[in-house]
Automatic annotation (TrEMBL):
This is Trafficking protein particle complex subunit 11 domain-containing protein. Residues 260-278 have a biased composition (Basic residues). Signal peptide: none annotated. Residues 254-283, 301-328, 356-384 are annotated as: Disordered. Residues 301-315 have a biased composition (Polar residues). It comes from Laetiporus sulphureus 93-53. The lineage of its organism: Eukaryota, Fungi, Dikarya, Basidiomycota, Agaricomycotina.
Amino acid sequence: MSTQHPGFYYYMAARCTERRRERFLAALDAEAKQHLTMTAPGFSNEKKVEHHAIILELYTRAYELFKAYSPATIQGQGRLTPWITYRIAHTYCGSGKFDMAAFFERIAKTYRREQWDSLLQPLLSTWYSCARKMGDVELSVRLLIEMLGHDIRTQSDDPDSTQEDMLVVLKSSVPSTTEETLVVDSSDSQPILNSSIIFWQPGAIVGEAAAFQISLMARENVSLFALPFSSVTIQFSADIPPIVVEQISGAKESPMKISPKPRKTPHCKTCQRPRAGHPRSGCPYADTLAPALDSSTCGRLESTESLETVLPTDSSIDESRGRPRSGKPDFIFQADVLAASTSKPTAIVVSAAEKSVVPHSVTTDSNSPPARPSTPKSDRPPYTAKTCSLGRTLSQDKQRMFFERARLTSEGSVVILKHPTDGVSDLLARAKTVGLAAEVIGSLGEDSRLVAFGRDEELVSKVGHIGSSEKEAAVDKVKKGCYRALVLGGLGAVVGAVATWTALAFS
């Protein structure tokens, strides 16, 4: 038969004294509610007892014995030592000696490291009560942020109580120093936001830029709607400068700005195409290069946002004529993929009104390499303008990427894709499964179809019913210089916003 060391008996004596104090407080509360004076000798003597002093003495003695007799490992009896330390700090807090509750800091480190959330959560609540009563602003903010990560409420019946307490502390309290920014290191605690990252392509070549997407979302049970975020900094482990996303106050559209800009897509020095997909052995197009083009006639996409074709949904007022516009969408387009001459690039209509902003511009860069597709076969004249048709459909991965981008467009936007006739039915069926409206709006010969995608089914339907007379009128005005045109030059280059996705997917 084995017996425990004396520390266990002191610990149990302290716990029994806590129960004794709870019963005394219950009797005291009953006396106050009944407006009666209890004359029992035992109750009168109990009023003179300093329960907190007895509890502290017993816990302290138990702590000393546990340290002396417990094994060095964190297993078995050694695990009870931090718990006794927590009870000592809790007793100090209950007795009003908030400055003496310094044990919380030491215990919290152990519980965070070992992820003892069931013990850490009540500790954080008690610790925050001490910090608030001491008026420690910095400590209160640190604890409230950590409590948000653990979904700890300062008031159990109010899910927004923790963030409301933080706003009260920040607005009504004065920090000890105003010269330094308060930095809260939460690397050892639970984050207040869930983060996830995905790459848009399943593979990448070493040394090339790879597009990725970072998602930051509030946790399911954590309320953060009242807390303002001014900026988010994304740090990288390599020698890459951080990306800072800043909140622009008062902005109605595009409220976030990103700095610095993403790196440009690397191009092959031989064929001037994007290097993505090139084998390491060399350029697969080296033997069929197209003649060099004047860089002034070539363009490059500044961002993938050029995939959007914006259709206004409201009946706006024509300022030039002073009367309401018709309910038809005022976007007129010419859907075609042309081979442009090197001397004169092909223009395509983008907007049907001078006041209407071109949804996404294509800029010209004299320093960027010319964007050129496949060289025509040797039996064809090199500068003959012909319609380019694609010989294959979108792969599953590219369909998925296309649908993801289409779903991210605004409700007043429509994305138009030139697709081979084979596979259009499968494309329409898959679009419905991801919640997109899709409709074939035209054809480009026997082999290609124009398909419109969008979140608004009515807008998608309207795109296919734009009258041919309106198109011809718009083309005539473009030739007269009335409207701005979206231009991409180069042999066989995809021209205009109508087919920009095709250029990205199959160039």
